[in-house]
Write a structure and sequence with these properties.
Largest sheet: 9 strands, mixed
Strand content: 15-25%
Number of helices: 13
Shape: elongated
Structural class: alpha/beta
Number of strands: 11
Number of domains: 3
CATH architecture of the largest domain: 3-Layer(aba) Sandwich
Order of helices and strands: HHHEEHEHHEHEEHEHEHEHEEHH
């Protein structure tokens, strides 16, 4: 370790070290750096020789860092991110000629409301740009932004952390979807009428904690989910088929709830409103390409009608 100096160390090896540390996988690390499997193995052997430590040991399908690798990462990763940020801040991005893939994390909500607008703009102004859209739970989003698996995330109810930047895209509120023969379809809705009512809930977490629990955790109200799903677009058909009340975002309900057998009713709970935000890692803040992508997303969100304007067309309201 005492013989390791930057003067005789190939700094490309540090980039590989960072990629393996983040990905915990040699194949994915090589893919990030456009290196073959043999090149990755050879470079890892050089790293191990330089530092006199295995650095990464195989456990199942992952490469887990040793204690020395953890110590090295504390200095190497921030340093590489700083250098990368400086280089990217002086780079240029021309949408008309760019050949690049952007990886976005978004669920059904963003996919239905903003992805069509974003795709249309990208195809019109940047024909060589590809979008790779993935779903990710709240627990996965921070890690995927940090390790570069995602360039940006659209989401809400997300504890971003100090290394994640964010900007508000739009506001919405949770709504109730019911069949017209359901008890909640008529008469004024009150919190008491929801107490103990079976319903279909949306979850953004691997823990299964649903969105309404997060909305109501400070109000003292407790609801009774009998189905918890991450696929928000499945709610209308589940409600139609089972007769159970469902919850989903009002803007998405406006777009997807059709037919005379279903109606949309506002939830009678204070705090049912939420904000959809755009998140990205601080290390990619100055990247011209990602700044362009974020501008496309914020402009797409700004082109949507306001929430009150949407509410005037609520399906099924008498």
């Amino acid at each position: 370790m005492n013989n390791v100096h930057t003067s005789n160390l190939d700094l490309n090896l540090l980039a590989l070290f960072a990629a393996i540390y983040r990905r915990r996988n040699l194949t994915l690390a090589g893919r990030d750096l456009n290196l073959s499997q043999s090149a990755v193995s050879h470079a890892l052997a050089r790293l191990r020789s330089r530092f006199g430590d295995d650095l990464f040991v195989r456990q199942g399908n992952t490469m887990q860092p040793t204690s020395m690798a953890d110590r090295l990462a504390e200095g190497i990763l921030p340093g590489l991110e700083m250098v990368d940020g400086v280089l990217r801040s002086h780079a240029t991005f021309d949408p008309a000629t760019a050949r690049r893939t952007f990886r976005l994390g978004m669920n059904d909500y963003g996919g239905a409301l903003l992805l069509p607008l974003l795709t249309e703009r990208v195809r019109r102004t940047a024909p060589g740009v590809m979008l790779h859209v993935m779903n990710a739970t709240n627990e996965e989003r921070g890690r995927m932004l940090e390790d570069g698996s995602l360039d940006a995330v659209l989401g809400c109810y997300f504890d971003a952390g100090s290394q994640i930047r964010q900007t508000e895209l739009l506001r919405d509120r949770e709504a109730c979807i019911v069949r017209r023969d359901h008890p909640l379809a008529k008469d004024p809705l009150t919190p008491e009428r929801f107490q103990g009512m079976p319903f279909i809930a949306l979850s953004l977490s691997v823990s299964g904690k649903n969105v309404l629990d997060m909305v109501l955790e400070r109000t003292g109200h407790r609801l009774h989910p009998v189905v918890t799903i991450q696929q928000e677009l499945a709610v209308p058909e589940l409600v139609r088929t089972t007769g159970i009340a469902g919850t989903m975002a009002e803007r998405l309900a406006q777009k997807t709830v059709h037919g005379p057998d279903l109606c949309i009713r506002p939830l009678p709970f204070a705090g049912a409103e939420f904000v959809l935000s755009l998140y990205w890692h601080i290390s990619r803040d100055a990247d011209p390409g990602q700044r362009w992508l974020r501008t496309c997303l914020t402009e797409a969100a700004a082109s949507l009608p306001g929430l009150e304007q949407c509410a005037r067309g609520t399906a099924g309201e008498e």
